[in-house]
Design brief:
The complex is a heterodimer of chains A (329) and B (340). By secondary structure, chain A is of the alpha/beta class. Chain A has three domains: 124 residues, no CATH class; 38 residues, no CATH class; 139 residues, no CATH class. Helix content of chain A is 32%, strand content 13%. Chain A contains twelve helices and eight strands. A five-stranded mixed β-sheet of chain A has the order 2-1-3-4-8. A three-stranded antiparallel β-sheet of chain A has the order 5-6-7, with no helix packed on it. Chain A starts with a helix and ends in a 5-residue tail after the last helix. With 340 residues, chain B is α+β, with helices and mostly antiparallel strands. Chain B folds into two domains: 205 residues, no CATH class; 127 residues, no CATH class. Chain B is built from twelve helices and twelve strands. In chain B, the strands form two sheets. Chain B has an eight-stranded mixed β-sheet, with helices on both faces. The relative contact order of chain B is 0.15. Classes of the chains: A alpha/beta (329), B alpha+beta (340). At the A-B interface, strand 2 and helix 8 of A face helix 9, strand 11, strand 12, helix 11 and helix 12 of B.
């Protein structure tokens, strides 16, 4: 990763110097080795704390909504999976394409510090990574773990090394690189195999942990409404805890419906959830259903194709399909 | 001092739960929170932190204040009962234990909040000393001793034994109730552990953070610092930091139409939200920069000015671990002038 960072900083400087862009949105090192914050750097800024390593998981596409409203042109560094969100935002006319230059950067899977802590690796002072092993120097001595075991949930079901959109690629040779990936629908299938009561209990347990911090909504590239219905005082619902916990649980269901057909399965919702609620499973359930009803579709593959819920064909399933899938008449 | 083997800790929990409702760190749905004890619960005293802090026991994230029932032209108003029975919050870390003193300054000063006051009166705090601090800890910056927390009873877990010492009248009364499962103990193992943990605390990376400058910083100078404009940029405006924080204390009061009446409840609110302190003229903080600044100015400047210099932070480090974009109070303190 260190070599990629060097290459990246060189390329960024080149693009800033030749005037292609006047600023870049990157990742800024924090107090520890893992608390990386997205940050905008200008030509005159010091790049010493500019970082690219296994803790740069944050998808930066959504920041571009605000950034492309500003003067000048910004450089964005998109990992392959981020490029899907970027396309989707383009499709929804939320990003001004003229004001952004896309540099596709390679990704070898991003790390989840919480998974490391769950393994008992705490008191972390520094971390070094190789392709297979993560080594941490801690207050309690040196600890190592298998890199694969501490990858972010979304990286386990990686969409691949190919960028869906770019102006330039940092390492074109990485585009065709094979990646290991699991079936992203296996957990959904497990939930589908449950009885309705079991499934209800599963989601009630998970969603009842919710503290209504709205991190999932605020980070979600598909949640780009100017005013969310939950922020509309006249809607009768609020973006806060409700006295009725069922009403509150519905927030996530409503949100999943709203992003259906537009969600690229970027996994940011689950990454940021302070309660570790597997929100991506709601989205994947919708994706799986849409694939079955309307044919396979991946949101964000391009910026033009109409999504399954906004297009109409004579082959579309009829509403009564719910009865054949166990729904009550 | 008393003790009990950790293998028998369940006996202690049962003994407490026999007379009082007991809340302690329990793992449910993959996360650890203060939940009510029940037999077979997956008690996790080894966890450094619950996700929500222990303030939830005294200032719950949602509580009903009153209910209205309408029938024809009559409105029946039913006020919610204040808690009237003893309850025990077990396993409160030193940072969270200090947060109660901070919340008291807000909720027990005039006008006294009767919901909170009732819980404080009937709540018994069994705090738990830290034996494995993490890199995110900085309670020592606020003169909190992680090895000797505040509370009615303090427990220490040393090896496979749990040591117990009452510190207040409430604590002594609780000790009397559970004494039959405890045995007398020598304090030596506890003192040995305290020494070891203090040595670890000496090595915490946040020790180097300078907070001294905040003690005589000019409020308006901090308020007008150009740093805010840089710091807030990546903030998502979510409420994670406020809701996991042991000292964040703001709430909203809302009415919920159940279809059969109205429930008036209060819930935690966040100064990071657009509708925070919304008034008839509109909101008084129109930008995320102002909202972001409010949260940190409150903790680092407004609260200390009004409370003999006491900061509105206890150094638990939850915001460091949980902020989706890793912006937190330590980065703010350093950026504003404390980076040595």
């Amino acid at each position: 990763m260190r070599e990629i960072r060097e290459l990246l900083v060189k390329k960024i400087n080149e693009l800033l110097e030749n005037g292609t862009v006047d600023r870049v949105i990157g990742w800024k090192a924090g107090e520890f080795c893992y608390d990386v914050t997205p940050a905008v750097y200008k030509k005159e800024d010091n790049f010493d704390d500019f970082l690219f390593d296994g803790f740069c998981g944050a998808n930066q596409s959504k920041y571009l909504i605000e950034e492309t409203k500003k003067e000048g042109k910004i450089l964005t560094l998109l990992k392959p999976c981020d490029s899907y969100s970027f396309n989707q935002l383009l499709k929804e006319h939320r990003i001004d394409r003229e004001k952004v230059y896309v540099l596709g950067i390679p990704c070898h899977g991003m790390l989840d510090i919480n998974k490391m802590k769950e393994q008992g690796i705490t008191g972390i002072l520094s971390i070094t990574e190789t392709d297979d092993v993560v080594t941490a120097d801690t207050l309690y001595g040196e600890k190592t773990c298998n890199r694969k075991e501490v990858l972010l949930e979304r990286c386990l079901c990686c969409k691949g090394s190919k960028h869906m959109v770019y102006d330039e690629l940092l390492m074109p040779e990485e585009e065709e690189k094979e990646v290991e990936t699991l079936d992203r629908f296996s957990k959904v299938a497990e939930l589908e195999a449950m009885t309705a009561e079991e499934r209800f209990a599963f989601w009630r347990t998970e969603l009842s942990k919710c503290i209504r911090c709205n991190a999932c909504r605020n980070v979600c590239p598909a949640c780009s409404c100017r005013t969310c219905v939950f922020d509309n005082a006249n809607s009768g619902v609020a973006a806060k805890v409700n006295a009725d916990t069922f009403e509150e649980n519905m927030f996530h269901i409503i949100r999943a419906w709203h992003v259906a057909g537009r969600c690229t399965d970027c996994g940011e919702c689950s990454r940021v959830c302070p309660q570790n609620i597997p929100l991506h499973l709601l989205n994947r359930k919708f994706i799986k259903d849409m694939d079955e009803f309307y044919g396979e579709f991946q949101a964000g593959t391009d910026a033009e194709t109409k999504g399954p819920l906004t297009a109409f064909t004579m082959e579309d399933c009829e509403p009564d399909i719910v009865y054949t899938r166990g729904g009550d008449k | 001092m008393f003790k009990i083997s950790m293998n028998e800790a369940d006996k202690l929990f049962k003994a407490i739960a026999e007379s009082d409702t007991l809340y302690l760190p329990i793992e449910k749905g993959d996360q650890i929170e203060f939940y009510e004890y029940h037999e077979g619960a997956n008690v996790r005293l080894d966890a450094l932190h619950t996700v929500k802090s222990a303030k939830d026991a005294f200032l719950p994230n949602c509580e009903t204040m009153m209910e209205f029932k309408m029938e024809g032209k009559n409105i029946e108003i039913k006020e919610a009962d204040r808690i009237a029975e003893e309850f025990v919050v077990f396993g409160v870390r030193a940072c969270d234990a200090r947060s109660f003193a901070i919340l008291d300054k807000v909720y027990l000063s005039d006008p006294v909040d009767s919901f909170y006051a009732a819980r404080r009166e009937h709540g018994i705090v069994v705090s738990m000393a830290c034996n494995r601090p993490e890199e995110t800890c900085f309670c020592n910056k606020f003169d909190i001793d992680a090895t000797n927390p505040e509370g009615d009873v303090v427990v220490w877990i040393v090896g496979d034994e749990l040591f117990w010492e009452a510190k207040t009248e409430k604590g002594t009364a609780l000790t009397e109730k559970v004494k039959s499962v405890l045995t007398d103990a020598d304090s030596e193992p506890v003192e040995k552990q305290q020494k070891e943990v203090k040595a670890i605390m000496e090595k915490l990376p946040l020790n180097s953070m300078d907070m001294e400058y905040l003690k005589d910083a000019d409020m308006m100078e901090l308020f007008n610092s150009p740093k805010w404009n840089e710091l807030y940029q990546s903030c998502l405006g979510c409420g994670t930091c406020t809701f996991i924080c042991p000292t964040c204390q703001c709430y909203d009061i809302r009415d919920y139409d159940t279809g059969h009446g109205i429930v008036r409840y209060r819930c935690w609110d966040s100064c990071m939200y657009k509708d925070f302190t919304m008034m008839a003229h509109g909101t008084n903080r129109k930008t995320q920069m102002e909202r972001f600044r409010q949260r940190f100015m409150h903790k680092l400047s407004y609260f200390p000015i009004n409370n003999d210099g006491e900061f509105g932070c206890v150094g638990c480090g939850r915001c460091i671990s949980k902020c989706p974009i890793s912006m937190n109070i330590t980065k703010v303190i350093k950026a504003l002038g404390g980076d040595n």
